[in-house]
UniProtKB/TrEMBL annotation:
Organism of provenance: Capsulimonas corticalis
Name of the protein described by the UniProt record: Uncharacterized protein
SUPFAM superfamilies cross-referenced by the UniProt entry: Rhodanese/Cell cycle control phosphatase
Record InterPro entries: GlpE_sulfurtransferase (IPR050229), Rhodanese-like_dom (IPR001763), Rhodanese-like_dom_sf (IPR036873)
Source species, domain of life: Bacteria
Matches recorded under SMART domains: RHOD
Any Pfam family: Rhodanese
Length: 109
């Protein structure tokens, strides 16, 4: 039997509702800087997937609620699997990624 570390999934609508309600999970964008610059959520931290393994443990607290986001949900799923394998217990990935998010976004920065 293969052990699969646990993490959860949020729909874009679920995350949007939580953010509008005032919830403040640690949001992490794992896209490239160029993708991030095009548009991203407010108060989100950029850790590109190609730097994720080398940066996540020093930049993300294991006891925080962490929501990982990419463009369509593939890279964030890989990042969620990685964090869960390190023992992070409150990790989620946003299904559908930024392409599915209908809320307010920031362009630039």
């Amino acid at each position: 039997m293969v052990f699969q570390p646990a993490y959860s999934h949020l729909s874009a609508a679920e995350l949007q509702a939580r953010l509008e309600k005032g919830d403040q999970p640690t949001l992490v964008d794992v896209r490239t800087p160029g993708e991030y610059f095009q548009y991203h959520l407010a108060n989100i931290q950029l850790i590109p997937i190609d730097e994720f393994a080398s940066r996540c443990q020093s930049e993300l607290k294991a006891d925080d609620e962490i929501v990982l986001i990419c463009e369509h949900g593939v890279r964030s799923e890989r990042a969620a699997q990685y964090l869960a394998s390190l023992g992070y217990e409150n990790v989620a990935t946003m299904d559908g990624g930024m392409a599915a998010y209908q809320g307010e976004v920031i362009h630039g920065e």
